[in-house]
């Protein structure tokens, strides 16, 4: 189950999104030696990025970044086309009872792909829980009432987002939205991660007319290729490349997302600097 699915509570003008991940979450963390707590937070971050992208039209790109003074130093999630994700985390070992998130900030970048369609929000980390941090972001950076729930159960991570539809803010009573949010808050981790939307939503939102849209797949897509990393070699410049070749005999670049290392020998590195279009490398 790796999907994002939208729905609308039609009588009260509230849109919602469900995201459930299993294999995609595992693929994001597979090449790293993350602690269970970091794995969980990274999975929740991936779900959150997809939820954020679900409210954008066209082919959105979303970046979610957390910087903390706690054990988690950096968490970075990128979501392109609303459904292709990758993520990484940098952390230092800590006692199990210490929250991962300390004081810090959250940066949300939303790119709709249209002219003047890039938006950035920066807010302090308001909680040790990611969903509470995101709600604080919505309260500060968005004009629409929003609720977000993230849950993890065994090998699955899931999220539920509720938001007032644009244009309904003045007509929509706060009581209606708070009532729907209260219903959503009753969902258990097992229900949110395991139940099909056709069964879960009527159970949560009793008496509401629900319009359910088709589910779309969510996939892991690191996007690191020899061609992309060759661009990094070019950015290093001739002097830096010359130094690396003299010291190591090669230029090696490591993808922080998938943990793969791309190695270029002297001839390959020189060809890249010269602008040769044929690029190859060895992967480690």
Descriptive account of the structure:
There is one protein chain. A hairpin with a 3-residue loop joins strand 4 (72-80) and strand 5 (84-91). Helix 1 (23-29) packs across helix 2 and helix 7 packs across helix 8. The protein starts with a strand and ends with a strand. It folds into 2 domains: 3-220, 3-Layer(bab) Sandwich (Hsp33 domain), CATH 3.55.30; 226-283, CBS domain Like (Alpha-Beta Complex), CATH 3.90.1280. With 284 residues, it is α+β, with helices and mostly antiparallel strands. The protein has helices at residues 23-29, 36-54, 130-141, 174-185, 189-194, 197-204, 226-248, 266-273; strands at residues 3-9, 14-21, 61-68, 72-80, 84-91, 104-111, 118-124, 146-153, 156-164, 210-212, 216-217, 219-220, 250-254, 261-265, 282-283. The mean pLDDT is 86.
SSE diagram, text form:
Elements: E1 3-9, E2 14-21, H1 23-29, H2 36-54, E3 61-68, E4 72-80, E5 84-91, E6 104-111, E7 118-124, H3 130-141, E8 146-153, E9 156-164, H4 174-185, H5 189-194, H6 197-204, E10 210-212, E11 216-217, E12 219-220, H7 226-248, E13 250-254, E14 261-265, H8 266-273, E15 282-283
Parallel strand pairs: 5-12
Antiparallel strand pairs: 1-2, 1-10, 1-11, 2-9, 3-4, 3-6, 4-5, 6-7, 8-9, 13-14, 14-15
